[in-house]
Design brief:
Layout (H helix, E strand, L loop, with lengths): L2 H19 L3 E10 L2 E9 L6 H18 L6 E6 L10 H6 L4 E10 L2 E11 L3 E6 L2 E6 L3 E6 L4
Parallel strand pairs: 2-3
Antiparallel strand pairs: 1-2, 4-5, 4-8, 5-6, 6-7
Length: 154
Amino acid sequence: MSKREKYESRTEELLAPIAAANGVEIYDVEYVKEGSDYYLRVYIDKPEGVNILDCENVSRPLSDALDREDFIPDAYILEVSSPGLGRTLKKDKHLAKSIGEAVEVKLFKPIDKRKEFAGTLLGFDSGTLTIGEEDKERVFKREDIALVRLSIDF
């Protein structure tokens, strides 16, 4: 397990009771370096949507717990937010909740001279993801997918 994965996993363990106490679910936790700064990003969600008070109610006790545990030696910025409307679908649980939704799929390498596809998420398994694109189905190998996210219609 990498350092990043250990930090994310331990943060999720600390976050679980805090999220439950505040009526939100953990959508994702990520530890990333951007430029010279490290970020510990926590994404929370609930059916009616997350508001700023939800983020504050999770952020304060999580910050205190992280300070007590002190398992991340680097200086980092803690961010707690909603995953947003165009949320990235990284995990199987995200995909399962999004069956029937409009998604965008970006690939590492082009297929039929295209790297981006849009359609309805029809299904997935450990090796593939299927979308309905107009009148046909497209099946992608998961290893070829750089990003899957919900589409935003304005």
